[in-house]
Amino acid sequence: MKYWSISAARTIEELSSNPDYGLNKQQVSDLIAAHGPNEYQQSKPESLPSMVLRQFKDVANLILLLAAGLSLALAVREGHGYVEPIVILAVIAMNVILAVTQERGAERALEALRDLNSPTCLVLRDGARTEVETSAVVPGDVVLLKTGDLVPADARLIEATGLAVDESSLTGESEPAEKDADVLTEEDAPVGDRVNMVFSGCLVTAGNARAVVTATGMQTEMGRIASFLNDAQKIQTPLQRRLARVVHGVSAVAVLAAVALLATGLQQGEEFWAMMLAAVSLAVAAVPETLQLIVTLTLTRGVRNMAQRHALIRKLPAVETLGSTSVICSDKTGTLTQNRMSVRRTWVPGAPAVEVGERTEDPRALVLLRRLALASNATVEPDGEGGEKIVGDATETAIVRLLSASGETREALLAELPRAGEVPFSSARKMMTSVHALPDGRFLVLTKGAFDRLPFAAAGAEELAERQAAHDSFAHDALRVIALGSRVVDDLPSDGDLEALEHDLSFEGIVGLIDPPRPEAAEAIALARRAGVRTVMITGDHAATAGAIAQQLGLIRAGAPVVTGRQLAAMTDEELVENVRSYSVYARVSPEDKIRIVEAWQEQGEVVAMTGDGVNDAPALKAADVGVAMGRSGTEVAKAAADMVLTDDNFATIVSAVREGRNVFSNIKRTVYFLLACNLSEIAVMLGAQLMGWGTPLTPVMLLLINVLGDGIPGLNLANDVSDERIMSRRPIGRTESFFSGITRVIALQTTAFAAVGLLAFWLGTFAWLPGGEGPSLAAGQTMCFLVVAFTSVLHVFTVRTRGSVFRRTVRDNMPLVWSALGVIAAFSALVLVEPVGAVFGLAPIGPFSWACALALSVVPTLVAEAFKLWDNRHETWLYRRRLVHHENRGEE
Ligand code: ADP
Ligand code: MG
What we know:
Elements: H1 8-14, H2 25-35, H3 48-55, H4 59-78, H5 83-116, E1 120-125, E2 128-133, E3 142-146, E4 154-166, H6 168-171, E5 177-178, E6 197-198, E7 203-215, H7 221-224, H8 226-229, H9 238-267, H10 272-286, H11 291-308, E8 311-313, H12 317-324, E9 327-331, H13 332-336, E10 342-347, E11 354-355, H14 363-374, E12 379-382, E13 388-391, H15 394-405, H16 410-416, E14 419-426, E15 431-437, E16 443-449, H17 461-476, E17 480-489, E18 506-514, H18 521-530, E19 534-538, H19 543-552, E20 562-564, H20 565-570, H21 573-579, E21 585-587, H22 591-603, E22 608-612, H23 618-623, E23 626-630, H24 636-641, E24 644-646, H25 651-692, H26 700-718, H27 744-767, H28 778-799, H29 815-833, H30 835-840, H31 848-891
Parallel strand pairs: 9-19, 9-22, 19-21, 20-21, 22-23, 23-24
Antiparallel strand pairs: 1-2, 1-3, 3-7, 4-5, 4-6, 4-7, 8-24, 10-11, 10-18, 12-13, 14-15, 15-16, 16-17, 17-18
Helix pairs in contact: 3-5, 4-5, 4-10, 5-11, 5-26, 9-10, 9-11, 9-25, 10-25, 10-26, 11-25, 12-25, 14-15, 17-19, 18-25, 21-22, 25-26, 25-27, 26-28, 26-29, 27-28, 27-31, 28-29, 28-31
Adenosine-5'-diphosphate binds near residues 395 and 427.
């Protein structure tokens, strides 16, 4: 049906709906059964076989397949037995199963998050305004749209005032399209010309409207092109790309090592096929197969942890960027403060200021309050539990609440003085006007807003000074000031331009509201500062109010500069960039100014997070490295532009997300440290023994066992680690900081220690006579080497978890890691102890003295690492203290 070519009334009739009542419950349930949920179908999920096949695009698995082939050939031709090919095939199977299940898990986690992020909208159902999830909208629903909303489905407009919709995602048109409910268009009008329609997924940038839904889900215009929209998720994050480079580098080293092993072996007269297999297995052992998997896992865990702490990630790369964030620009009202306002003080000329509590009886204050309430849009509504609640903007609810508590109602006042028009509040103008019809046919103009923005009539110097003094004393006490001006006019402007009435207002008085800082905000700011993250407060409030709150929050010291929107406008971009480090508070700014602040900080090389909630904030949110939208008070426009949404609107949540972002990076770094030291030391043991002419210390099967069981399983649990105590006392992670920064030395040290004990164990078992055993043999040497390399790897996982001593860091915060480590150690011991099983893998029983040697050697690398950390931490603490002092000094500028 081409609803854009027929009238709204006919459209409603066609859809059996009602413009004032909406649909009833029965209709809704019938329609949802008929049309399904209002969702774009995801591109078909990858099938299991194709997921499995994809795993063999991975170099590691390919090399493994090669190894399986070789060992099978050996088994058939030379009668080597079938254990080896079977083990290798089992390892391949395990690798693939692990990869597939983890990938699935990660996908499901992201899926769940997408659901959490799902938008809602306002519809009429059974005659009541009801908030429903966008996915529950059906054709025939009457939706109510306002500025900042996301259009939930394709809909025919019934009525619209000043409606403009950003349809760029659909039509490519960057200017918002102006809409009109009463225009009929040709049947074949293209999407961009259907001015009486709104389309699913587009954003309302101005005005409001009522519309009837004509199509949902895949039937919508956006649904038709939805297949294009699905690909976004598959993109690799910068971190994943960088890590892929690491894996490639290590793989190259592995291949070179394998070639070297083959060459030396052949030179020493070893058999070709056996050497070939050893070389291929070495390559397999050295390739960090699990690394990329662990990164994906760590990222999704990070996203999930953030969600639990009220930060929903909309774009995956933001997880990483948060770890590098060095400046957080935050709105004051509602983010740093509670947004629970209440009127504290009132002042009208000619009398002292009145402190008000829950209620007031002061007649002058009441006159002022009544008029402020008339000029407000907050309403008293039933709360569904027999009581009442006040709905609306926090500033206005405070006014209406005080009036109600004092025994009067806004509704009664409005009945006497009905509204004749309104100029809505805008953050740019910082005021609003309502016009009321007086009984004598004239009109009362009430303008409320920022004291310094209201256009008052000229007044004597003394009077002006008195007002200013009252305002300043309010603002210095951190009160948010609302001033009221009024005028009586005979007629309204014929062109309907009510803004033209805003001049020569007579001054009525001011009210001061408190909006207490959030209790956790000051602490979060201090935590961020220690972590090298600067907090910048941005507000539309007056400079004095902003400055007072900023001091309460510990953001600035008394006397620090507060930059006003006017000062900002007078600065050139260059001046702003040059001085941006000295400003922590911006007051009386408009949303449009935020983008300049973001860009100035970025120009200074900082990584900037910026909060916002309104339509006008969207450009700044996009420009910021991490755009942060408010989940509760934010518009859908802001959310759509953001990288992260705060479900609790709380500044402290940003700081904990930063912490989580750092944790993700540090977990990945630890995994790199862990796997690299293990893999490199295996190469060293294999090559070292070959060069010394000692024989092969580890068979391919043993290498695979160690890699998959010994490294893989604890490694996966490492991704689970919570952040260590000092993560927020370091500087932000550099945007291009290498995974190896600060750990190259310790990786080298650990690799050397592992290789040394591994070789020593092999030598002892093969050549030395140890009491209590069956005498030296290659099998005994391999068994001891196997135990030592496996045990050191498992112990190593605890070393990499902390920069401090392993003995001081509790393991209780990651019990799965402990269990998996113990399990792996038990499994390896059992392999050696249970003879028939061990024999299958080429492991021989060894005497108690050999066991003791193996165990003793296994803890040596841990002790070496402890000694190193002891030395390094002294050094590091000293460096860190110096940095901190430097940082504090800078903060004082
Ligand atoms: P912020 O959100 O940073 O506090 P706003 O743009 O909301 O900044 O407010 C800026 C100024 O506009 C306030 O200091 C106040 O004087 C005025 N103001 C805020 N809300 C209202 C409102 N609902 N009606 C009239 N004036 C308002
Ligand atoms: Mg505000």
